[in-house]
TrEMBL record, chain A:
InterPro entries: Porin_dom_sf
Highest taxon in the source lineage: Bacteria
Protein name (Swiss-Prot/TrEMBL): Phosphate-selective porin O and P
Keywords (A to Z) from UniProt: Signal
Signal peptide: 1-21
Length: 392, 90
């Protein structure tokens, strides 16, 4: 509670101290751009989002070809005034309906906005920026624990949190930085949906209700070291205690996640093309604890989980050929290192994705990829994936 | 002890932010960037650059704020320039 009060105090202190510089520049910009004030009505609304349909194919699989993924993700956007803003996304995908996020924002000044609600976790860059279906060039996502390789979904990488944040961007001369700091319901030790038993150190984020008095805190700080904003480097972290209230065995056990992300995207005039390199390294460390086995004995292990992806894309977007300019070539290296000694862990997994995207418009396209997955002690698997994504 | 560390980190972050706000400003070169240049430099970092005709003037205002708050990579002034550029194409 003291932590929360301290955080709120700091937020208010920052808000008051910075509000002096807010309106002058914003009003000046509005006057200069003129047209912004010409649109009638204060409330601006947009219904946007994406829909997709996809398939997978494995040579050795009996199904050969499986149309196995579909989704519709409408995003509702309301700009109520220059300060008030509401955005929400409903995700209807693969048989599930979920409110992905619903975030209410109030801009205190040009450098700071307060947000509250269910919001995308500011952890790394993938979940908040590169994950939307019309943005993701591949038909699949990077390899993270949320995939089927590990039990349960951690929801750390693509998930949402319930809480409050402050965010904004700051000028640094020719350079820029941005920040997002949050306090939210914390992570918890995941339990089996069938039996209610602990899943031996698997962590569950995205909690609509908290399980203890400790709140998670964290955030992301990004930095643009080049004046043309082509390169962004980000550092993220969050920490929180995971034990249920009243459970003495786990009351001091904390989960701490760290991430480093990079995005370099640049149009190269000499080759009439756009190149992009995106990467994110993430780690999740959970304090050592004893977990029960089915025979009533306990065991402990080094609960560390790491994932990395590096992707490269090349699109000759500015050549004259009408077909060639819509083709984007893709490659992504993925690795996932679970805790080796966990009952749900094991050997590292490596996946290479080679892909191609054909753009029908700036937000609609066909995506194809070939996955090569390998894990020590297991046969290698190859899979061909396709997806048609329509942004709207 | 952890609370003391936490408080120090929070205060350090707050003071750093205040220092940035008071001591740093956008350079003239950055201020002089046009809406078209900002549109070309920033949108493409995550997605393809949109066509002005895809949304109405009012919708561009909402989308501009959505992008600014979603990514925290654009100042209000920069976003207003991009929105005005897109509106001018309608």
């Amino acid at each position: 509670m003291k932590k929360l009060i301290t955080l709120i105090g700091v937020f208010l202190f920052l808000s008051i101290a910075t509000s002096y510089s807010q309106n002058e520049a914003a009003e000046e910009a509005l006057e200069q751009t003129g047209k912004l004030t010409e649109t009638p009505g204060n409330t601006k609304t947009v219904l946007t989002g994406a829909a997709w349909f996809g398939f997978s194919s494995q040579k050795d699989d009996a199904l050969k070809l499986n149309f196995n993924t579909y989704g519709f993700t409408p995003v509702f956007i309301w700009k109520l005034s220059d300060k008030l803003f509401l955005e929400s996304e409903l995700e209807i995908a693969d048989g599930n309906i979920e409110l992905e996020y619903a975030k209410l924002s109030y801009s205190l000044n040009k450098y700071m906005t307060i947000g509250a609600g269910r919001m995308l976790t500011p952890f790394g860059a993938y979940g908040t920026r590169w994950e939307p279906a019309f943005v993701e060039r591949f038909p699949n996502s990077p390899l993270v624990p949320d995939d089927a390789y590990l039990p349960d979904d951690t929801h750390l990488y693509f998930g949402a949190i319930m809480g409050m944040d402050v965010s904004g961007d700051l000028p640094l001369g020719d350079l820029k930085m941005n920040y997002s700091l949050f306090v939210s319901n914390g992570p918890r030790l995941a339990r089996s949906e069938e039996t209610g038993e602990l899943l031996g150190g698997v962590i569950q984020y995205e909690n609509l209700d908290d399980n203890n008095a400790n709140k998670a805190i964290g955030g992301r700080i990004g930095f643009f070291p080049l004046s043309n904003s082509s390169l962004e480097l980000g550092v993220s972290g969050n920490t929180g205690k995971v034990g249920d209230a009243g459970d003495a065995a786990y009351k001091d056990i904390a989960a701490t996640a760290l991430a480093v992300d990079l995005n370099y995207t640049k149009a190269i005039p000499s080759i009439k093309s756009i190149i992009s390199i995106k990467s994110q390294f993430s780690s999740l460390n959970v304090d050592k604890a004893n977990y029960a086995l089915s025979d009533s004995t306990t065991y402990t292990f080094d609960n560390k989980l790491q994932s990395l992806f590096v992707q490269f894309s090349f699109r000759p977007a500015n050549v004259d050929n009408k077909i060639l300019k819509n083709i984007e070539l893709l490659y992504r290296y993925n690795s996932l290192t679970p805790p080796k000694d966990a009952s749900w862990g094991g050997e590292p997994i490596t996946r290479n994705d080679i892909g191609l995207c054909y753009w029908l418009s700036w937000r609609t396209g066909l995506r194809f990829a070939y996955e090569f997955t390998s894990r020590k002690g297991e046969p290698k698997t190859n899979e061909f994936l396709g997806r048609f994504v329509m942004g709207f | 002890m952890k609370k003391i560390y936490l408080t120090i980190v929070i205060l350090f972050t707050g003071i750093s932010l205040l220092t940035f706000l008071n001591g740093c400003a956008t350079s003239q070169a950055m201020t002089d960037k046009s809406g078209a240049q900002l549109w070309g430099e920033n949108c493409v970092r995550c997605h393809n650059t949109p066509s002005p005709a895809d949304y109405s003037d009012g919708q561009w205002e909402a989308i501009g704020m959505h992008m600014r708050l979603r990514t925290q990579t654009l100042s209000p002034d920069e976003m207003n320039k991009i929105v005005a550029f897109l509106q001018s194409g309608n």
